[in-house]
Structure formats: C-alpha cells, structure tokens
Design goal:
- The complex is a heterodimer of chains A (about 425) and B (about 475).
- Chain A is an alpha/beta fold and about 425 residues long.
- In chain A, about 35% of the residues lie in helices and about 15% in strands.
- Chain A is built from 13 helices and 15 strands.
- Chain A has a seven-stranded mixed beta sheet with strand order 2-8-7-6-5-3-4, sandwiched between helices. Chain A has a four-stranded antiparallel beta sheet with strand order 11-12-15-14, covered by helices on one side.
- In chain A, α9 links the parallel β6 and β7.
- The radius of gyration of chain A is 25 Å and the shape is globular.
- With about 475 residues, chain B is of the alpha/beta class.
- Chain B contains 15 helices and 13 strands.
- In chain B, α2 packs antiparallel against α10, α5 crosses α6 and α10 packs across α13.
- The longest helix of chain B has about 35 residues.
- The chains are: A alpha/beta (about 425), B alpha/beta (about 475).
- Chains A and B meet through α1, α2, α3, α4 and α5 of A and α1, α2, α3, α4 and α5 of B.
Chain lengths: ~425, ~475
C-alpha cells in the first residue's frame, strides 16, 4: 500500500529479529474465536480515483450561489496567507506540545492567539480554545456552576436555539436547572448572545450589574467579526466571554472544524476549562512558552478536572490568529464597518417586508416576508441565490420569517440585484 | 523570538478592502467599543515571515519520526488535504441541513456522511455510528450520555457508577463524571491487564458500564474481554470501548464482536487525519443494537430519492451543532476509500509488526514494563536508568537532540518512569532502525556519563523550560 513502506524483505528481516515466523503470530493474544470473519467494506481505490470520487460527491453540493445564509456561521473573505501559513505541515502534522522545546511554534502561536482574544473581547485571560461556539456555552455554564456554587443556568432569548439544544443534551445527566429568561436571582449565570440569533445588537451592561448584585455571572456569547465595532464583553462587565470563532478564517465546511473561543477575568482563570499557554524561560534566560495551570485538566485531575476536554482546536486557533494579524487593527474594523453598512443598505431596499428586530442590527436581521419564507428561498435557489434561513424550520420564527446575513463579500451591485429578485418572488 | 505584537508599527497594514460602495453606517456610541481592538499592525511579508519562523520552531510528522504512544502519529496523506479543500465541501454552509428547502443542495455531503458512518460501524462491528462528536473526549462524553439514556429509559435508576481501569486515559473518568456518573477505578494486574476476579468483585448492581481501551494503554490485548462483556451484560451493565488504540486491531477483530456496546473512534489516530498541534480531531461514536435508538440526531438516512434527515426515536439530541468536524470526516473518508477492505487489514499488521520490532531491538537494553505480548506499542520503564540519575524525561529530551520526537513519557500512570513507543505502520525499517540506534546510544551514554543527558535538549530553539515559573508568574497574554 502507498502509505506503508514495509517490503516483504523488510517484513522477513523484522520477523527474524522478533523471533517469530509470521505476522499472524503477533496477534496470538487475541482469542481465535474473537477474530474477525468478514466485513462489508468496498475495495480500495488509487489516489487518482479517490480524488475523482470526492470531486464527484462535491459536485452534488451547491456552492457558489450568492448567499445570505448566516445564523451564526458566516461567509467572510479568508485571506490567501491564512491557508498558505496554516497549511505548513510543521504546524498541522504536529501534536499537542508535550515536548515544549520542539513545539515553540505551537505554544507561541497559542499565546499570541490568547492575547488576540483578550484584546478582541476586553477580557484578561483566554484559553487555547474549545471545540466550537455551542460546546463553549456548555463549558461556560459548568464553569459558572463551579465559581458561583449554584446549579441554576439562565438562558436568555438572544441565544442561538441550537446552542440551547446542545446545552440541554450535554447537561442531561447533571444536576442543573436550566431556565429561560434574564433573572439572575439564585442563578450561577445568565447566558446572553450579542448580536442575538435574530441579529439584534444590545448592551448588557445593566444586566451585568444585576447579575453581580445577585451573585451570578454574566456569560456573553459574541460574534468575533462584530467585535470590530461592538462594545466588548469586557466593557459590559461580563465574567466569561465565549464565541463561535468560525468567522475568523475558518471555511464554512458544513459544520466544522470550527473554533470555540473562551476568555474570562483573572479571578476565574483557575476554574476555566481547556489548555492555557503561558510565558516562561529556559536556563539561559531565553523566552519560551509552555502549557500551564495543567492541574485543572483531565490528564492530571481525572474525575476532578474542570472538564473532560483534552485537545483544543489549535490549528483553527492558529488560523484565527493569522486572520486577525493580516486584517490588523484598522482592517478588522473596516471589515466590521463594511458588513454593517452593506447590511443596512440591503435593509433599506426591503420595504416590502417587515424587519422584526426591536433594536439596531449588525450584519444580520430578521425579515417577515409577505409569503412563506421557505417557498421564497426555494424559488430563489433556482436563480442562484441562497436568500437566507427560513426561521420556522428551526423553530425560531413564523412561517414567513427569513434571517438574512450580509458580509463584506457582497457588492452593492449584488445587493441591488438580490433586493429586486427577493421583492419579485416574495410579492408574487 | 519576538511576539507578533512586538513587531507592530502604527499605520502599517497587510490587507485592505475595496472602497466601501454603499454609504458608511455606524451604530450608537453606547453599543460600540471605545477603541479599536489592538490587533497587530504589520505588513503581509512580515506576517508571513513571523508564522514561517514559528513553523520552523515546530516539529511535525512531516519532519521526523513521532513515536508518541497512545497517539498514533501516522503519516497524514496529502490526498486527504486535497479532498477537504474541495470547494464543494469546504464552502458548504451548515445551515443547509437546517431546512428541508436546501436538501437537494447538500446531497453529496449527506452521501459521504451516510457512507462513512456505515463503514465506521462496519470496521468496528457496531450497528451504527454518528459523526457528531467533535473530538475523542467529546465522543466519550457522548458515549456515556448514551449509557445514561439507556439506563434511564430502562428504569435502572440505581446504576450510577462506571468502572474505569487505572491505566485509562484521564478523559475516561472525566467524561463519566460529566455524564453524571460516579467513577470507581479497577487496578491492573501485574501482567498489565484486568483480571476477571477483580472485575467480578467490583461488578455490583450499581454499575452502569465499564470503559475499556483494548489493547489497553499498556499495549496489551485484554484477554478476558469477552468474559468481562458476558459478566457485565448479565448485570445489564454496558461495555464502552475507548477507540484510542483501534489501530492495533483494525481488520483483525472488532469491538462489536468482542461484546462492546458503545465506543468512540479517533479519526485523527486510526484514520490518519492530521493532529493539528492538538486539534481539530474528530470522535464519532459507534453503538450496538441496544443503544441505536438513543444516538445523537438528526441523522442522515437514505430514502428512494436520496438522503434526508431523521431523529432517532429516543435520541439524546444534538451533541454538535451539525455533523461534527465534517472536513475532518472528509479526510478520513478519503483515507478509507484508498485503503479499502483489504488495505485496512495491512494497517494493524504493520503497526503491530513495527512495535514488536522496536521491542525486540530494545528489550535487551531497556527494561520492559510487562512480560511482552505487545501489540501496536511497547512500554519500557527507565527505572534502571533512574538509579544512575537518568530519568525518562532525560531520555526523551536526548532523543530530541538526535532528531526524533520523543515517545510518550510518564503515561500511563501505572508504570514508573514510563516510556511508551508507538511507531505506527507508516514508518520504514530504516527509520525504525535509526530510532532504535539512537535509543541504544542514549542508554550507553546513560550508563557511562549520565550527566551528559541532563543538559538535553541543546539543539532545539530553547532548552528545558521553567514550568514552575510559568505557573507562578502567570503570563498568558500580551495585553
């Protein structure tokens, strides 16, 4: 096989050193009755055929339409250097930095990523990343339980309904009371999202004060690109900031791999789950980085660990760091302003529908159409548009409600053409 | 090396957008951040050089032999990267699965998910598999939640305990606790495996499940596994298979046939997807018939027209927002397609051959932790070397100076001065020999001049780092 270099002669030489006659003899500890009889796996293919086969499957997926689909996962431009640099195999074929001396690339990039996340969210400590935005909600909830020593979790209406569903699945066997609303009384935390799943931007500073008065934490789930403009969780007084980091250089990829962002205040760092890189030095005084505060983690604490999480999404965190470094201070703000301005421009052209958001929006808004949203989306698919997310199918709106997202990738021309097409179909 | 923030100069930038072609809009001040985030201000060439230099301070499988025990650091085929970069996969929006209106627009992805789940189940003798869990530990949590759902459904409210061997990965007990269980530890016997009588003594009515790695983290096949399964099932306790070491047995025997009810796969181990410096991984779960109704959903199912979604009857719900780390699954699928039915069997045959070859070459010099019979990895203890002041860590660091990544050390916790070597099937005999030569040379130095190894590594970008200082003067961000 192409990926196994051992020849027959190698095999014979190795068997001779081992002192057995056959490879089969090496499996003697598996009782014969337990050996596999047969399985239903197709025969192998050459690399060339695999490539054609994957291309054929890919051709049965629709990409390349002008898309207004968001709902927490956005089609932002990914700078060319993100792929070029994260594609260096010294990064992607390495593992967990168990040997820090030969893993400084990994460890320094995690440290720089943590720094970028703190700067972005206005928090003091970030971890090396969690799996994604949804699992980050669960981790923030259990972290709050450890800190506040209470078992009630309050989920605000702004939260992505999928995140809530995931929270319920993850917490099914824990002694947690999960309720809707924004009342922090007796709660470990209130979890909010900004902008909301439906796109509304809010300031949770006042809620933060109420949470703290009641001895509860405020957890803010945010949209990293929006933080190019919006008030940060830190400025609002949040105790834990979390985010789905997909928008920082991760392709949409039908759901992953993405990036779970988590940051907190200094006093809570020892209760935070996940890996953390810290700065130190070697005997010669050279700066270096190691994984630190590992006594929180499963490989040491086992049943008493802060979480069962072992790995992180290190390669995705690296992509996010490169993405943020390429856009830089001004460029990242420009992206946010472009997303917001283009969304407002489109919104201004959709007078035939009703914008349902009760406050300002960033780059996404909920539009009530004159007719069934799913039918409108279906008809526009034939014209090369993915018009948005029909909210009723997610149990997050009425039949006519459509969630529409705009990014820096949409030109004015494309927005004009889409507004015209949407009006024609929606008012048909 | 400087931090990227230390290279920042006000006014410098790498990328720009086109001039805004719509009127600029702002939000009210009270909704906006006071100042722009202090991200680096650097030219593209310097961003590129910064990360290129960082990559040169790293070591991956593409650089050198990486024999980390229990991690299965095999070659990551490039075709898998090409497959995952296919625009029809990489650019596909996950919300296409959130409304039936998009069903015709993601049939290729559904076909891949359906077939990969089917083949993963087939490889392990399971009834079905779900790609939803995002990493191995997440798969363990999913598995233990499935166990909890099963017992809740059957009214087994007294079953609140999971048995975990002392040699298990730390994620096993941590996951069990997150699923609401108490954990009791079963000690390994002197020969490195679990003994039936010890297990039987622990198997009370309260036991919901036992989590096993097989071969275990001592590299040994649990010879009594079928009897353990029978005993467990007689008390309606379930068997969990930690798939970390599946590479040793793929195509030789199947966890489902051994009596396991639920398992996770590590696609980043057995199916060669890149470890990515610690993630993203992918940790699908597989289940036997009895856990089928509880699988996470929605699931991709086949009907006359193609593929659609359905929720299993008693599903635990969504453990992931969509279908887990889909682009990692695409890589694993490409890997499976290449090997196929017969090729897969060569993986375990060669992985076990290579580990036993290393064992044969080193066992006269290093002390084996157990009496042999290793499968895909071999375990030594550096206790004899430690008597002269050379510890497992010194041997590991000395390997770095000789151009190799180190084996896993100090895990499992059951073996003192543990050195755990997993070569995988993708290394040539020449590489294995060079590694063994280095290990033998290090042993010689350890005997003759132990101090010479304490300074290692000396050829790496930094020497041994002060971990105590890192924890004491906590500096985890440049602000």
């Amino acid at each position: 096989m192409s990926w196994i270099p051992t020849t027959d002669a190698d095999q014979q030489a190795m068997l001779s050193t081992i002192g057995v006659d056959t490879v089969e003899a090496l499996f003697a500890t598996i009782p014969a009755a337990l050996r596999m009889q047969s399985w239903d796996i197709p025969p192998g293919m050459s690399e060339m055929s695999v490539r054609n086969h994957i291309a054929d499957l890919a051709s049965r997926n629709t990409v390349g339409h002008t898309s207004f689909l968001g709902g927490g996962y956005y089609d932002h431009y990914i700078p060319a250097a993100v792929d070029a640099l994260s594609g260096r195999s010294e990064f992607y074929t390495a593992y967990t930095p168990y040997q820090p001396e030969t893993s400084q690339g990994t460890l320094q990039s995690i440290y720089e990523y943590q720094s970028a996340i703190c700067r972005l969210t206005g928090m003091e400590f970030a971890n090396a990343s969690l799996y994604d935005g949804g699992t980050a909600v669960f981790e923030a909830a259990t972290m709050s339980v450890r800190i506040a020593r209470r078992n009630k979790i309050v989920v605000h209406s702004s939260i992505n309904p999928t995140y809530k569903a995931m929270l319920l699945t993850h917490a099914a066997n824990l002694d947690l009371e999960i309720v809707d609303g924004d009342d922090p009384e007796g709660a470990a935390c209130v979890i909010v999202q900004n902008p909301s799943f439906h796109g509304t931007v809010a300031d949770f500073t006042e809620l933060s004060a109420r949470c703290h008065a009641a001895g509860a934490l405020l957890v803010v789930s945010c949209y990293p690109v929006a933080l190019g403009m919006l008030k940060t969780p830190g400025e609002m007084g949040a105790d834990i900031a979390i985010a789905e980091g997909q928008s920082l250089g991760m392709p949409l990829g039908f759901g992953g791999p993405y990036l779970g962002i988590m940051a907190t205040r200094k006093e809570h760092v020892r209760k935070m789950p996940g890996r953390i890189a810290g700065e130190t030095q070697d005997a010669q005084g050279r700066r270096g980085f190691v994984l630190t505060l590992q006594a929180r983690e499963q490989h040491i604490r086992r049943t008493k660990a802060m979480s069962n999480i072992c790995s992180n999404q290190a390669l995705c965190a690296l992509r996010a760091l490169i993405h943020l470094s390429l856009w830089g201070k001004e460029g990242f703000k420009d992206v946010a302003v472009a997303c917001h301005s283009k969304a407002e421009y489109l919104k201004s052209k959709l007078h035939f529908g009703t914008v349902l958001n009760e406050g300002p929006t960033f780059n996404e808004f909920t539009l009530r159409l004159p007719r069934n949203a799913a039918e409108v989306v279906a008809e526009l698919l034939d014209e090369g548009y993915v018009a948005g997310l029909p909210l009723a199918d997610m149990g997050a709106g009425e039949a006519n409600d459509l969630l529409i997202a705009v990014t820096e990738k949409h030109s004015r021309e494309a927005l004009d053409a889409f507004a015209t097409a949407l009006e024609r179909v929606a008012c048909n | 090396m400087q931090l990227i923030y230390e290279k920042s100069q006000p006014g410098r930038r790498a990328l720009t957008l086109d001039a805004l072609d719509v009127p600029t809009c702002t939000l009210p001040d009270d909704l906006c951040r006071a100042e722009a985030a202090a991200l680096p201000e650097i030219a593209e060439i310097d961003v590129v050089r910064h990360f290129t230099h960082l990559s040169q301070r790293n070591v991956g499988i593409d650089d050198t032999f990486y024999p980390l025990g229990s991690c299965t650091m095999k070659y990551n085929p490039k075709i898998a990267e090409v497959a995952a970069a296919e625009p029809g996969m990489a650019q596909l929006h996950p919300h296409f699965s959130s409304s039936p209106v998009f069903e015709a627009n993601c049939q290729g992805a559904y076909a891949l998910i359906h077939e990969l789940e089917r083949e993963l189940a087939e490889v392990a003798g399971m009834k079905a598999a779900s790609l939803q869990p995002i990493a191995g530990a997440h798969g363990e949590l999913t598995g233990t939640l499935l166990i909890a759902a099963y017992h809740r459904d059957k009214g087994n409210t007294h079953k609140d305990t999971i048995i975990v061997p002392d040699s298990a990965h730390g994620t096993n007990p941590a996951s069990a606790v997150m699923a609401g269980f108490k954990v009791v530890e079963i000690p390994s016997d002197k020969d490195g495996t679990i003994h039936l009588d010890a297990f039987e003594a622990m198997l009370t009515d309260n036991v919901a499940a036992i989590m096993l790695t097989c071969p275990n983290t001592h590299g040994l096949f649990e010879k009594d596994v079928a009897k353990i399964a029978k005993l467990a099932h007689s008390k309606d306790a379930l068997l969990y298979y930690d798939g970390a070491n599946l590479n040793a047995i793929v195509g030789q025997c199947r966890p489902g046939d051994l009596g396991f009810d639920v398992m996770h796969y590590n696609l980043h181990k057995t199916f060669a997807t890149p470890h990515g410096m610690g993630g993203p991984g992918c940790g699908p779960v597989g289940v036997s018939e009895r856990l089928l109704p509880y699988l996470p959903g929605p699931r991709v199912v086949k009907n006359e027209e193609g593929y659609t979604l359905a929720m299993p009857e008693k599903s635990i719900g969504r453990i992931a927002a969509f279908f887990g780390n889909f682009l990692i699954a695409v890589r694993a699928y490409a890997y499976l397609r290449h090997y196929g039915s017969e090729g897969l069997k060569e993986i375990s045959r060669n992985a076990v051959l290579h580990a036993n070859y290393i064992y044969a070459r080193l066992k006269g010099t290093y002390k084996s932790a157990f009496p042999g019979n290793y499968m895909h990895e071999c375990i030594f203890t550096a206790t004899p070397q430690a008597a002269t002041g050379v510890h497992a860590i010194d041997i590991a660091k000395s390997l770095l100076d000789r151009g190799f990544h180190a084996p896993t050390i100090y895990f499992p916790l059951t073996v003192k001065e543990c050195i755990m070597i997993e070569p995988t099937e993708t290394e040539s005999k020449e590489t294995l020999d060079a590694f063994c030569d280095a290990m033998l040379e290090i042993a010689k130095v350890a005997a003759e001049n132990p101090d010479a190894l304490h300074a290692a590594p000396e050829t790496t970008p930094v020497g041994r780092l002060d971990e105590v200082r890192a924890a004491r003067d906590l500096n985890c961000a440049c602000l």
